[in-house]
Amino acid sequence: MNAKYILIVEHDLTFGQSLSTLIEEEGYTTSHVRSAIAAMESLQLNRPDALLINANLPSMSGFAFTQWVRLEAGFRDIPIALMIPADNDIVRLKADGVGATVVLPLPFDLPELNYAISELWKGVRP
């Protein structure tokens, strides 16, 4: 059986590489891009099983990119974990409003990351 492929969209190179390593240690395959624009290009080349997106991306925010994914017919069913900068109701509502499958407040620890990823496979938002 092939490992599920997660595309990580994280502007910080070191954090993105760390996420890749941690997720791969759990048996997934990953790739890491540093912007929403690079993620759009990557989606065209290799459709991931899930996306892990930082809400605070430069140029196009993770919120806007999540909304774009949800509006694209070929990608709208991809589960999305959106990393948000604060765990408060307003930010959670915004993440939910753009179509995040799972919300992952920053900072988080490894068990929280693993839990968020496991939640991605429980179903995709319509």
UniProtKB/TrEMBL annotation:
Record InterPro entries: Bact_response_regulator, CheY-like_superfamily, Sig_transdc_resp-reg_receiver
Keyword Cell membrane: no
Keywords: Phosphoprotein
Gene3D superfamilies in the cross-refs: 3.40.50.2300
Record-linked SUPFAM superfamilies: CheY-like
Phosphoprotein recorded as keyword: yes
UniProt name for this protein: Response regulator transcription factor
Coiled coil, from the record: none
Domain Response regulatory as annotated: residue spans: 5-121
